[in-house]
Amino acid sequence: MGIQAPRGTRDVLPAESYRWQYLEACMRKAAASAGYRETRTPVFEHTELFLRGVGDTTDIVQKEMYTFLDKGDRSITLKPEGTAGAARCFLEHNLYAEPLPCKMYYLNAPIFRYENPQSGRLREHHQFGLECFGAQEPTADAELILLAYRLLSELGMRNLSVNINSIGCPKCRPVYHSRLKEYLAGKIGCMCDDCKGRFERNPLRVLDCKQKKCQELTKDAPSMLDLLCDECRDHFQELQACLKDAGIPYTVDPRIVRGLDYYTKTVFEMITATKDGNLTVCAGGRYDHLLQQIGGPDLPAVGFGMGIERVLMLAESESIQIPEPAWYDVFVTYMGTHRADAFRLTQLLRQEGLKADMDHCGRSLKAQFKYANKTKAPVTAVIGDEEAAGGTVKLKNMNTGEERSAAWEAAAAAVREMTEIKAKE
């Protein structure tokens, strides 16, 4: 094989696509339950959007973006995350002039990051994300956490834990930055090069370093929670009260800062324990000033992203059974020269709302039956000389062995009776 998929990407094969479709249906249902409506934004955006929104001190912008010049010499970037594009969409189409909050979600949205492929996170992966624009109250934060937790729990995920933190706002964070820099001043020389660069530009990002040496050096760093302003403290306390009232188990983790510069106040991660350690399956938070940073009004917002590949991987590791639908409701076979009759009957059954197919490979009748068994079609239809002459078809329930003959116009109803498939509405 000369050409293969690029490293960090993968194909979703026909035999496994039903798992994606099932999960997507669950995600759509969860979003709709809270009034979120779908948006679909471009796969690529102007690079400036991510420089201004995500932040030029982040690993995403500095190391991971797929950025190129198009034929018009414009700098274009494949989306490294979903929130900035949703925010741009919200502003460009003046959705802030409509009744707020504006609740939107995106599903199966491709995300591109040039990083070492890891468990459930590829260079091209896909996200389910919810964004709520114009809501300032902590009930909006709690609603999103609750929605994600219930979605994953109802899918059958076990060992879920919710970790939350508050990273303050522009009023109280500068005080914390000063305190944190004082703490780091005597240690930064022993830290990695990335942390040395973050020390001046955004010391909070030092706490997000994945290097064990740096984590050890910052384990006793001062907590932002001790320096929150009254507004941020009240917001965080009410969020916790909402989660307690909803029965959501959570842990306050002052180490959570998230890897994007636009976050304010609430940040959270949803983690599940695996045999290989803890794995983050959903994360998000509040970004009250992102809209203003990219040229819009100063409106509050909150959201989260959930990796679809990672959810599917966890479902498999926890042996969660996702129901596999049958390929067909009925498979039409034919004898001798009756291929055209089989074709017409197949189309008639499809028009009646059944999933139907026939042999297109010129197989013998015996081979057609063998193929029909492989597809696990519950009913097989046979057209021979006798059936063709009488305008009938012989039907067989492959699970019970029941056989009956039916006129073509009654064939769909007969298949439904034999299999209890509901008629199309």
How would you describe this structure to a colleague?
The chain is α+β, with helices and mostly antiparallel strands. Helix content is 37%, strand content 22%. An 8-stranded mixed β-sheet has the order 1-5-6-11-10-9-7-8, sandwiched between helices. It has a 5-stranded mixed β-sheet with strand order 13-12-14-15-16, with helices on both faces. Strands 2-4-3 form a 3-stranded antiparallel β-sheet. A hairpin with a 2-residue loop joins strand 9 and strand 10. It is elongated and about 90 Å long. The chain starts with 16 loop residues before the first helix and ends in a 6-residue tail after the last helix.
Say how many strands there are.
16
What CATH calls the topology of the largest domain is BirA Bifunctional Protein, domain 2
Alpha-beta classification: alpha+beta
- The Rg value, from CA coordinates, equals 28 Å
**Amount of helix:** 25-40%
Quick summary of this structure?
By secondary structure, the protein is an alpha+beta fold. The protein is built from 15 helices and 16 strands.
List strands and helices in order, with pairings.
Layout: H1 17-33, E1 37-38, E2 44-46, H2 47-53, H3 59-64, E3 67-69, E4 75-78, H4 83-92, E5 102-112, E6 124-133, H5 138-155, E7 160-166, H6 173-184, H7 193-201, H8 212-217, H9 230-245, E8 250-252, E9 264-274, E10 277-286, H10 290-293, E11 301-307, H11 308-317, E12 330-334, H12 339-351, E13 356-358, H13 365-375, E14 379-383, H14 385-390, E15 392-397, E16 403-407, H15 408-419
Parallel strand pairs: 1-5, 7-8, 12-13, 12-14
Antiparallel strand pairs: 2-4, 3-4, 5-6, 6-11, 7-9, 9-10, 10-11, 14-15, 15-16
Helix pairs in contact: 1-5, 5-9
